[in-house]
């Protein structure tokens, strides 16, 4: 499973992952763990059975490049996509 986060949220996830053996960071551990945390900018070309996109608004930001990153993040799963957020979703996802 992949967890896709914004660049700003990656630092917080690094602290969370810590010593857990079942969760890894793509930069540090590759894709050898049960759950891989990936920054949105590094998600292109990857595939996972399931993906959790964390804070889509933070990934989308305020420009077209961010919306493209969000699109890439949302198209990484083969079977299941989930999104978790506390910020309002980007307007384009609500249309």
- What is the SS-derived class? alpha/beta
- The rounded distance between the terminal residues' Cα atoms is 28 Å
Structural Rg: 13 Å
Tally of domains: 1
CATH topology: Rossmann fold
In words, what does this structure look like?
With 95 residues, the protein is of the alpha/beta class. It has helices at residues 7-17, 26-29, 56-60, 64-74, 91-94; strands spanning 2-5, 23-25, 35-39, 48-54, 77-84. It has a single domain (2-94), classed as 3-Layer(aba) Sandwich (Rossmann fold). The protein contains 5 helices and 5 strands, in the order βαβαββααβα. The longest helix has 11 residues, at 7-17. The chain is globular, with a radius of gyration of 13 Å. The model has no long low-confidence stretch (mean pLDDT 90).
Please write out the topology.
Layout: E1 2-5, H1 7-17, E2 23-25, H2 26-29, E3 35-39, E4 48-54, H3 56-60, H4 64-74, E5 77-84, H5 91-94
Parallel strand pairs: 1-3, 1-4, 2-3, 4-5
Short note summarizing the structure:
This protein has 95 residues and is α/β, with parallel strands linked by helices. It has one domain (2-94): P-loop containing nucleotide triphosphate hydrolases (Rossmann fold, 3-Layer(aba) Sandwich). The chain has helices at residues 7-17, 26-29, 56-60, 64-74, 91-94; strands at residues 2-5, 23-25, 35-39, 48-54, 77-84.
């Amino acid at each position: 499973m992949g967890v896709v986060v914004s660049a700003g949220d990656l630092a917080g996830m690094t602290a969370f992952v810590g010593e857990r053996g079942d969760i890894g960071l793509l930069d540090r551990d590759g894709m050898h763990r049960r759950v891989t945390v990936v920054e949105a900018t590094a998600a292109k070309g990857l595939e996972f059975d399931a993906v959790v996109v964390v804070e889509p608004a933070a990934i989308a930001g305020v420009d077209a490049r961010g919306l493209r990153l969000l699109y890439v993040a949302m198209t990484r799963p083969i079977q299941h996509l989930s999104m978790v957020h506390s910020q309002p979703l980007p307007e384009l996802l609500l249309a």
